[in-house]
Amino acid sequence: MAKLIRSRNGRWFTSMFFLVVSLAILFFALSANRLRSATPASGTLDPNGPNTSQSWSGAVVAPAGSDIEPSCVDGVSCDTYTVTLSGSPSNWLGKRAHIVISWNFNSTAGDDFDVVIHKGSNAGPVVASAFTASSTQPEVLDIDPNASGIGTGVFTVHVIYFTAVAGDTYNGTATVTGGFPTPTPTPIPAFAFTTPQELTGHPPSPAFFQGDGEPEIKIDIFGNIYATAIQGVPEASTSGSRSTAAQASFTWGSPTDCRIIVPI
Question: Which residues lie below 8 Å from residue 148, measured CB to CB, with a gap of 6+?
């Protein structure tokens, strides 16, 4: 009977031991999970509302001592806030997600936080980063969904505790704001040919009658327009007309005048 009681007691103590250990592991796992994320851990931004602003905070466990992102430990020397940009890039035309990380700039500890934003997860491509070497200025970043390779969806804001004292905190905000100016195409002015003008005033030509042959047009640096042509044979009988009134009228000139004024 004594052996049976000892056997039962042994099993009970063994069971209780494993139960306590399991609860302890679960407790530490949950605690670590809380540490790994900011508070709250995530939020969504809607370009047209209702969620146009989100905020969160984080607490320092230990300083990172380096701005090299892979060297920080989530939940200890860095943490992550997940922001989702809803809709499609077309919904974000003229808008962007504006991220600001700030802290107590009057702290004697001289805190300094750095930020890296990734697409999808902390292992995804870098969208933006801020490593301002200052303990008195916030870190400011923007996500432009219409920039090449960005789009909408999930982004992680990875905050690194570069220089900080355990227990210090930071505050983060994500806000929908007016975006980078969208280029406006320059309108093409209406264009139409005016009614052709007959350049008159020159003497009748026995070879070409009232029409000249091989016409050509030149414009000088002052905007004057010259129309010249062979009026007869030989070529020395070239005639020309000049307009100094934006084609409103032309004045016939002698061959000598044309030779002087035509070259540009």
Answer: none
Listed residues 132, 152, 178: the one ending a domain: 178
- pLDDT tens digits for range 8-50: 555 555 555 444 444 443 344 334 444 446 899 999 999 998 9
Residues 118 and 57 in one domain: yes
Report the Cα–Cα distance between both ends of the chain, in Å, rounded.
125
Exposure letters 50-67 (e unless 16+ CB within 10 A, then b):
eeeebebebebbebbeeb
Tell whether 154 and 227 lie within a shared domain: no
The residue written with tokens 């029409």 in the block is 211
**Number of other CB atoms surrounding residue 105 within 10 Å:** 12
In which residue are the tokens 């210090």 written? 168
64 in the same domain as 163: yes
| Strands annotated E in 18-149 | 37-45, 53-59, 78-85, 95-103, 112-119, 126-130, 139-143
Question: Which of 136, 165, 150 shows the shortest CA–CA distance to 97?
Answer: 150
Q: How far is CA 152 from the centre of its chain?
A: 13
Whole-number pLDDT of residue 145: 95
> Which residue in this structure is represented by tokens 């995804």?
124
Residues in the chain: 264
Instruction: Indicate if 174 and 92 belong to the same structural domain.
Output: yes
* CA pair distance 203, 231, nearest whole angstrom: 9
Q: Domain containing 72 — which CATH number?
A: 2.60.120.380
Q: Are residues 168 and 220 in the same domain?
A: no
Q: Which amino acid is at 146?
A: N
Q: How far is CA 56 from CA 78, 139, 159, in A?
A: 14, 15, 12
